[in-house]
Amino acid sequence: MIDIRDRGSSAPTPAGIAAMLFGLLLLASTSPIFGQMAEVTAARVQAPERNASSPIGLTEAPPKIAEHHSAAVQDEVPVSRRLGFSRIVNPSVLGEVNLTETRKWREAESGLDKMNGKSKPDDDEEEEEKFHWKPALAQSSLFLAIKHGARLFQKKTYRELGGPFFRDWGNSIKNLRGWNDGDGPFTNNLAHPLQGSVTGWIFINNSDRAKRQEFGKSREYWKSRFKALAWSTVWSTQFEFGPVSEATIGNVGLRRKNGHSTAAWTDLVLTPIVGTAIVVEEDIVDKYILKNWIERKSNGVTTRVKVLRSLLTPTASFSNLLRGRYPWKREAR
């Protein structure tokens, strides 16, 4: 018979118990197996209950976590901290990732992308669309010189070059009245509108946005053509009554012709308006006849295509010559 009292001397002492607990905690802080068990335990704690209505006892898919600040903060707490030994267990041993640091990295990357977006704008923003004033004014002046140069060979023009400049200029403008200026239908209804179309093309050729527009219902197309109308109106008004005009070179308006004042409203109105209509008409011809029909059947820009471009869009061709380009030049093709 064994005496139980003999085993009393082998009972663990308080110091031994403390040493055993310390050893277990040290083992937990270095053992990856224990860390994985802790994560599995935490997952089981958070897992949803079995669906009682399911016949096979399968669990439903966990509901999606709402994007809320409180839920995000809860997810950011490591498993080891929720188990109460975050100061002892190294989170890297458990394979945990600090979501707070991850979010900071993502925010930093997002901020970098935004900064790069500001420093590197889109291609459309890099290619700044502008109106080129110097070549536009130079081409308009060249066209003005051509017009007045041709007028100087007319007897009705060079015979009026003498006399007081400013007084005759003022009197010519004062005689502006009525619609009929005494000129024939060809001059008023065709020649002057063709002039207005040329000046409209001068604006279009020097506008980065306007020269890329193709006839259609787009707002940009019609906006660009109305701007061409405004440019043509200013040029036409200067040609009629400006400092370098028919009123100063030849004193048009100072005398009457066929019972009418030679300074009338017909040129001020028809030249820009009908001229812009000719611009639109040439856009239509260029798109549907030249581009979609003739050029589609041709093998490239052939001699035939060049000749037809020059003849079917005459004012666009002449405006190309004013800027030193071939008359059949097209910006988009």
Compile the SSE list and pairings:
Blueprint lengths: L13 H17 L1 H15 L22 H8 L2 H4 L16 H21 L3 H4 L6 H19 L3 H4 L6 H10 L10 H21 L13 H23 L14 E2 L2 E2 L3 H33 L5 H10 L1 H9 L11
Helix pairs in contact: 7-10, 10-11, 10-12, 10-14, 11-12, 12-13, 13-14
Which keywords apply here?
333 residues; 2 domains; 1% strand; 14 helices; mainly alpha; disordered N terminus; elongated
Quick recap:
The chain is an all-alpha fold and 333 residues long.
What would your notes on this structure say?
This protein has 333 residues and is mostly helical. The chain has 14 helices and 2 strands. The radius of gyration is 44 Å and the shape is elongated. The chain has 2 domains: 67-112, no CATH class; 133-322, no CATH class. The protein has a two-stranded antiparallel ribbon with strand order 1-2.
What is the gyration radius calculated from CA atoms? 44 Å
- What's the end-to-end separation, in Å? 115 Å
- How many beta-strand elements? 2
Order of helices and strands: HHHHHHHHHHHEEHHH
Number of helices: 14
What is the count of distinct domains?
Answer: 2
General form: elongated
Helix content: 55-70%
Overall pLDDT level: 76
Q: How is the largest sheet built, in terms of strand order?
A: 1-2
Unreliable runs: 1-10, 37-45, 47-61, 64-76, 85-97, 112-126
Structural class by sheet pairing and helices = mainly alpha
Strand proportion: under 5%
Major sheet details: 2 strands, antiparallel
